[in-house]
Each structure stands twice: as C-alpha cells, then as structure tokens.
Write a structure and sequence with these properties.
single chain, mainly alpha, 73% helix
C-alpha cells in the first residue's frame, strides 16, 4: 500500500475520496434519525434507507451515462451536483417537509451509484494494473474506518446542532472532493457517443441503438468467465448475508441476554475487523487472485455465521471480527476484478451493473431476514446463512484460476509510473 500512496496523483484522488466518503458516512444514519424525530415512526425512518437503495434499479442507465463522458470531469461534476442536491434539506422544518428528505435521499442514491461507477474507471486510468489491489485496499480501509466513526459523528452532530449544520458539513465534503480531483491531470481516450459504436467489446465498430448499448455491461458480465463466476457466487451468498442485519438483534436479545444497545459494541468490533481486512486484502489478492480473495471473504462470513449460532460473548466477538475482515476481502476482490477484466469503454456499465446485481439480492435478504426472524429460531437461521455462504465460497474457490494474481511491478528503485500514449490509451 505504501507504494501506491507514494504516487502524487493517487494521493490527490485519495484526499478527495476521503472528503466525499466522510460526507457519505455522516449523512446515512443522520437522515434516518431526522425522519424519526419528525414523525416518531421507525418504519418511516427505515424507508429513508430504502429511498437511498431504490435507485439501484437504474444502475444500467447510470452506467451507460458514465461511459459517455471522461471520468475526471464527470467525477467533479457529480460531487458538485451532489452538494447542490443537499440544499433542499435547509428548508426542512416539520413533518410536512418530510417529502424533501425522501427526495434528497433518492437523488443521493443516484449520486452514490454514479460516483462508484466513475471511480472504477478513474482508478483504471490513474493506477497501474499491478497496484489496483493496493489502491482499492487503501480506499476500503478508510471506508471501514469511517463506518466506525462516521454514522456516530453524524448522529451526534445532528443531535447537538440540528440538520442545517449537518447538511453544511456534508456539502463541504463533496465540494472538497470536487476541488481536489479537479486538480488531477489524467489523459483519457475520447468517449464513444450513442450512434457511433456499440462498445460491446474491444475493437467493436458496429453501429448500435441506445438500448443495445444500455445492456452491453450486463452482456459482458454474463460472457466474461471470471466476472460471471464472481457474480454468481457472491450473488448466491448475498441472498442470505443480509439476514444478519436482523439476526444480530435476536442474538444479542435472546442469546446474550443484553440490551439492544450492545449491538453497537459488536458493530465496533466488526469495524475493527474491517480495518484489518482492508490492510491485508491486497496481499491476499496477490496470493490467490481476485476470485480467490472473494471466496476467502465469503468463507469468513460463513464461518462467522455458524459461530453466532452458539450464543457466547467471546465467540460472538470473534465471529463479528471475522465478519468485519470478510467485507474488505469481497469488496477489494470484486472491484479489482472489474477494473482488471473490463474494457475501458464498458467499465462504467459493468461497475454499475455489478452494484445492482450484488446489492439487489442483499437488500431483498435484509427484508427477508426481518420477516424470518419472527418465525424461526435465530440460531437455525444463522446455520442456514453459514451453510449457504460456505457453499457459495466453495463455488468461488473452484474458479480462482480464472483470475490469476497480477505480476508484481519490477523493482526499479523508484515509484513505477505507467507511461501513456498521446491519445491517452493505457
């Protein structure tokens, strides 16, 4: 990781992403708390999170738009627009203004998909292939660290000073990201516009309708062996992994016989595991490849779920620590695989499509878990989660040779810089 952090261009991008991720982390929980305070309804507060997730259904369209424009200017514009979209929140005063929060949440969800898709392409241009895992690992480590403090800081800021100051701080984060990334100098190849080429595969010159281009990312995901294996395996695991969001409350209540507030302690332990996982995930990818690292991450989550089927405080802490380590393994493995295996003109659509295909089943499983925990014993459900995820891990591990580890950069005594042609091609 130190190698990629020595690169001035990546440090500039890193600073911008830290600013935008900080804004994201303080907003997510605070918006739900804001709704809860205005209405007194937990259901309406939970609907705020759903409003953020719902735009995921538009991921193919968002990816298609992302692939139309150069990555750096689009990333800057998306952060500026996100900051502007938060301004209606200054007008929220009472329950009658609830629709403003939901409207902002929906547009914020669209912004999140856009920024994620643009980032995959921007990293592909900025960082040599052999350093992509390190770059993703650094960013995932920061994201996990912010998961520890960001939501609590946002909630505390809202409680102490109200929604206005919270919105202002978040806007500053997105504006700072726009300024820092705007200072980058990235040579990019010209985008292919609708009606010129379909961009369905490298070297394609056929003219295509917009509907064909819209589905090109999903077709590529279905046709590329490593990506297809990764999505099928991780998608299978995601169908049950979301159960844990509800099961952990039953585990604390019925298993450990503690107050619901103790969930916060377990979340903190999980966050510590996430920090550790972010630091070691690049090394894992160098050993077993992206699909292999994804398999290890899913296996760790499965092992944690099986452990949680037996209520014990120390075993529970060890289990949630494992679950925390698993998340960076899966995210870094999946993002690095997309960046390494996707043709540059398609990377926005592939990244957005992947988000939809992974987060869609996970969102369904969160809702399913909330229903099932009222019918079945939480221990039985944790066993189901563990067995299904271990099955998914085995399927992924069987395909690890589809994504062999990238060759290490040669030791030349200085930071390797990839030279680019005058056209901007890698």
């Amino acid at each position: 990781m130190r190698t990629v952090l020595r690169r001035p261009d990546f440090r500039l991008l890193f600073g911008g992403l830290v600013a935008s991720m900080t804004a994201e982390s303080i907003l997510l929980l605070a918006l739900a708390i804001w709704v809860k305070e205005l209405t007194g309804s937990s259901g309406l507060a939970g609907a705020t999170i759903f409003a953020i997730i719902a735009p995921m259904t538009l991921a193919p369209l968002v990816g298609w738009i992302v692939d139309r424009y150069p990555r750096r200017p689009l990333f800057v514009a998306a952060n500026l627009v996100t900051a502007a979209l938060l301004t209606p929140l200054f007008a929220v005063g009472d329950r009658t203004d609830l629709w403003l929060i939901y409207l902002v949440a929906i547009f914020y969800g669209l912004s999140y998909i856009t920024l994620s898709a643009v980032l995959s392409g921007l990293l592909r241009h900025l960082v040599p292939t052999e350093l992509l895992a390190d770059a993703n690992g650094v960013l995932q480590t920061v994201r996990q660290g912010l998961r520890l403090i960001g939501p609590l800081a946002g909630a505390a800021l809202y409680t102490a000073a109200g929604g206005g100051l919270l919105v202002g701080v978040a806007m500053v984060g997105f504006l700072t990201a726009a300024v820092l990334v705007g200072l980058l100098r990235v040579a990019e190849s010209p985008r292919s516009w609708p009606g010129r080429s379909c961009c369905c595969h490298p070297g394609c010159t056929c003219t295509a309708r917009w509907s064909t281009e819209l589905g090109a990312g999903l077709r590529y995901l279905a046709g590329e062996p490593a990506l297809r294996r990764a999505l099928l395996g991780y998608g299978l695991g995601s169908l049950v992994m979301g159960f844990s969001e509800s099961l952990i409350f039953a585990y604390v209540d019925h298993g450990l016989r503690r107050d619901a507030a103790f969930v916060g302690v377990l979340v903190t332990v999980q966050g510590i595991g996430g920090l550790a996982g972010g630091l070691v995930s690049p090394g894992m990818i160098r050993r077993v490849g992206e699909v292999g690292a994804l398999a290890v991450g899913v296996a760790l989550f499965g092992s944690a779920a099986l452990t949680l089927s037996h209520p014990n405080l120390w075993l529970g802490c060890a289990a949630v620590l494992l679950a925390g380590v698993s998340l960076p393994f899966t995210m870094v493995g999946l993002h690095t695989l997309i960046q390494r295996r996707t043709p540059e003109p398609l990377i926005g659509r592939v990244a957005a499509g992947t988000d939809a295909m992974v987060n869609g089943p996970r969102a369904v499983s969160i809702g399913g878990g909330a229903l099932l925990v009222g019918v079945f014993d939480y221990r039985q459900l944790f066993v189901v989660v563990g067995l299904v995820t271990l099955l998914a891990s085995g399927y992924l591990w069987g395909g690890r040779r589809l994504s062999p580890p990238a060759q290490p950069a040669p030791l030349t005594g200085h930071v390797p810089v990839r030279r680019r042609s005058p056209t901007g091609a890698p």
